[in-house]
Amino acid sequence: MSLSAWLWLGMLVLLALAVPAWGRRRGRRRGGPGPGRRLLATLLFLLALVLGLAGALMHSWHWLHEDVPVAQLSLRQLGTQWYIGQLQVGDGPVREYELRGDEWQLDARVLRWNLPGQLAGLRPVYRLERLSGRYGDPKQDLAGQRSVHDLREGWETWQIRQRMLAALPFADARWGSGAYLPMLDGARYDVFLSPRGGLVAKPADARTEALLREAGW
Q1: DSSP secondary structure of 68-92
Q2: What residues make up the domain containing 180?
Q3: Which 3 state secondary structure label does DSSP give 34?
Q4: Sign of the C-alpha dihedral computed for residues 90, 159, 173 and 169 taken in this order
Q5: CA distance 101 to 85
Q6: Cα–Cα distance between 145 and 162 in angstroms, integer?
Q7: Are the C-beta atoms of residues 68 and 76 closer than 8 Å to each other?
Q8: Which terminus of the chain, N or C, has less C-beta within 10 A?
């Protein structure tokens, strides 16, 4: 169980102790709780509030340092510098794209929040723009066969929503971000959005890690 869960559990225990302390005393004397019990109940309530707030902050802080899954990409080689990429964005369907070159690249546009917005539970807003193939040699990139695929679905709606969100006082910055890694036959990659709002690509399994080592990455 996470630290935030333990803090919230402690809050519930303190509340369970504080509520009876405010109840009426049983016995021969009339009236409500005495000054001592009232003071104890107040302290328990305050401590429960502190634990609850600390749990909320720890929960937010935990995912502030956690990458958000964005997409998965699997590669199958058809020929020299020629691949089929199977891309799954979130829980959406798997789609195939023809890619040419030595490396794949995924680009996105990102809207990031400042710290108060992040602590309030707002995660970066992003929209994937394109998946493309690129050559390791920039000169070949100028003359080689290009492969660029538009991933912008509902782009006009995104543009309007992005402008509205960017006007909020806790919006931090807007920028483009991209991640790329080698295209290798049988490789599988996971793509994440980092807490700072940048795309990060990682090998999805041990086989891909071994392929990257063999390729000198």
Answers
A1: EEEEEEEEEEEETTEEEEEEEETTS
A2: 69-214
A3: coil
A4: negative
A5: 12
A6: 34
A7: no
A8: N
Residue 75 and residue 147 in one domain:
yes
Residue 74 and residue 52 share a domain: no
Query: How many Å apart are CA 91 and CA 74, to the nearest integer?
Result: 15
Residue spans of alpha helices (H) in the chain: 3-21, 35-64, 115-119, 138-143, 155-166, 206-214
Check residue 90 and give left, alpha or beta (phi > 0: left; psi -120 to 50: alpha): left
* Distance separating alpha carbons of residues 108 and 191, to the nearest angstrom: 11
Query: Which among 198, 179, 213, 211 has a CA at the least distance from the CA of 73?
Result: 179
DSSP structure class, residue 167: T
Side chain identity at 179, as an amino acid letter?
Answer: A
Cα–Cα distance measured from residue 31 to residue 147, given in angstroms and rounded to the nearest whole number: 81
Boundary (domain end) residue, out of 20, 47, 64: 64
Q: Which residue has the tokens 């912008």?
A: 152
Judge if 178 and 82 occupy the same domain: yes
What length does the chain have? 217
pLDDT single digits (tens) 60-91: 444 455 788 999 999 999 999 999 999 999 88
What number of helices (H) and strands (E) belong to the chain? 6, 9
- Beta carbons within 8 Å of 74's beta carbon, 6+ residues apart: 85, 86, 187, 188, 189
Question: Can you give the pLDDT at residue 27?
Answer: 43
Q: Residue 147: beta bridge partners? A: 133
